[in-house]
């Protein structure tokens, strides 16, 4: 058993009826909705975080209002306008969205009566209403609509300045038979002149800002502030647009340039523990800018210092004290934490988006010294693979370069080797230097000269440069028009 209340631009509310606990009130409410009795009824008596009331078709502030009538009064006459309220001991106003009939004292002192008006709560644990309002339903959809009504601008009597009214009522399920004489209208009735006379600002009307210059200026400033805050949030200067300054930080200005941090700390520490006290200074010159921020551990200590230190004379300057409106410290903390999280996330992914991968290292592991001539050279990559690729490359290019002569002694490259040593760079920026050796640069005409005489070539080079028991890197530099080969060996 449910009813849908359409409140126009404000939204919709769906109410489930507790037929087993309050059958009389549920029947009355359903049949009034069916007769479109509530159409154009205003929302009134709005009390923030407590409740609001409706159900009087004209409104309680109209002289033509009779307070509303039950379905029995509409069908059987004014004598039946009110009916005894039903209070079930299990039903309490414990949660937001509780729907109950408004009641008034009856002829019998122990009896309360209801008509058409009902209350919807906008707060929790409202035991004040228990025994005064008769519960018959609860809101199951439309809590955002309740929140809009709860935050509506109202006058001193709780009536919204901009009209909020029940536009239509739709019965989703009705278990009761219609009373004798009830006729459902074929269409929604047109608002009466009495109802229209109670309209202040229509739901579809816009408030003209230029009617009240002061209000218009205030609204303009609020909009501008919200827009600026949103911009700062988008560029990352604020953690969120609605950030509020901390309530335990004091702003002190009009300081004497000679006043130091320690002076302020000593003066203000009598109010409570100070977490930080900083006089703001020029970054370039270090001169005081004559204002400071003092952060207290306790908010009450900050408030006490605000009231006691206003206009106090410090170093012949009468200071001005106020609560800090700066959020830069909060922003810095948030920004650093956010960047740290991003950095940790990036580091955890590793190379290529996976922490299981890393870049290929083309260097020796650490600074390992060679463990003998036959030991591992310490390369991260496989030397056998490198040699195999080099030999394959040379074999493919043999047909493009001159062949070595059979007699190694007659090799033009090998004979000229000692004379063509360009330079020797010990212990610097190369593979040999990493192991304490030397790099030797040699000019040759063609790498094919090394095909069959590499051992002899290394021997002659070693004899010419006097490198003993050290790792030696030999770089064969090409003559223009030829290629080059890098050979590494251990003497």
TrEMBL record:
Residues 185-196, 369-379 have a biased composition (Polar residues). Its EC number is 5.2.1.8. One of its GO terms (molecular function) is RNA binding. It catalyses: [protein]-peptidylproline (omega=180) = [protein]-peptidylproline (omega=0). Gene3D superfamilies: 3.30.70.330, Cyclophilin-like (2.40.100.10). It is found in: Nucleus. Its main location: nucleus. SUPFAM superfamilies: Cyclophilin-like, RNA-binding domain, RBD. Belongs to the cyclophilin-type PPIase family. PPIL4 subfamily. This is Peptidyl-prolyl cis-trans isomerase.
């Amino acid at each position: 058993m449910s009813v849908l209340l359409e409140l126009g631009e404000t939204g919709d509310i769906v109410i489930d009826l507790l037929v087993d606990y309050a059958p009389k009130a549920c029947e009355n409410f359903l049949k009034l909705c069916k007769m479109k009795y509530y159409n154009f009824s205003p929302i009134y008596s709005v009390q923030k975080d407590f409740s609001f009331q409706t159900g009087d078709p004209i409104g309680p502030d109209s002289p033509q209002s009779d307070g509303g009538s039950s379905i029995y009064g509409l069908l059987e006459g004014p004598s039946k306008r009110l009916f005894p309220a039903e209070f079930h001991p299990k039903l309490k106003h414990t949660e937001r969205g509780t729907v109950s009939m408004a009641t008034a004292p009856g002829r019998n002192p122990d009896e309360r009566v209801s008509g058409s008006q009902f209350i919807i709560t906008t707060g929790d644990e409202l035991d004040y209403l228990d025994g005064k309002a008769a519960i018959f339903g609860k809101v199951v959809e439309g809590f955002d609509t309740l929140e809009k009504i709860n935050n509506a601008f109202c006058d001193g009597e709780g009536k919204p300045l901009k009209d909020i009214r029940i536009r239509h009522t739709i019965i989703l399920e009705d278990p009761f038979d219609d009373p004798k004489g009830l006729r459902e209208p074929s269409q929604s009735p047109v608002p009466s002149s009495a109802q229209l006379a109670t309209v202040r600002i229509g739901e579809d009307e816009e408030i003209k800002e230029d009617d009240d210059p002061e209000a218009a200026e205030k609204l303009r400033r609020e909009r501008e502030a919200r827009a600026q805050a949103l911009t700062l949030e988008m560029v990352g200067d604020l953690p969120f647009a609605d950030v509020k300054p901390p309530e335990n930080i004091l702003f002190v200005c009009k300081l004497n340039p000679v006043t130091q941090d320690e002076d302020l700390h000593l003066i203000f520490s009598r109010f409570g523990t100070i977490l930080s006290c900083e006089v703001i200074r020029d970054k370039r010159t270090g001169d005081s800018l004559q204002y400071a921020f003092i952060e207290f551990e306790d908010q009450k200590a900050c408030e006490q210092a605000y009231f006691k230190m206003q206009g106090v004379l410090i170093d012949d300057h009468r200071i001005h004290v106020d609560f800090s409106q700066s959020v830069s410290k909060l922003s810095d903390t948030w920004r650093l934490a956010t960047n740290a999280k991003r950095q940790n996330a990036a580091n955890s992914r590793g190379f290529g988006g996976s922490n299981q991968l890393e870049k290929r290292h083309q260097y020796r592991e650490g600074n390992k010294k060679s463990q003998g001539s036959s030991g591992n050279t310490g390369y991260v990559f496989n030397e056998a693979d490198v040699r195999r690729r080099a030999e394959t490359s040379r074999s493919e290019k043999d047909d493009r370069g001159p062949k070595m002569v059979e007699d190694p002694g007659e090799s033009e490259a090998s004979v000229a080797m000692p004379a063509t040593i360009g330079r020797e760079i010990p212990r610097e920026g190369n593979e040999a230097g990493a192991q304490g050796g030397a790099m030797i640069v040699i000019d040759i005409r063609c790498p094919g000269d090394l095909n069959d005489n590499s051992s002899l070539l290394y021997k002659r080079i070693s004899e010419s440069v006097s490198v003993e028991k050290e790792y030696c890197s030999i770089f064969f530099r090409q003559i223009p028009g030829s290629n080059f080969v890098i050979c590494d060996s251990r003497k």
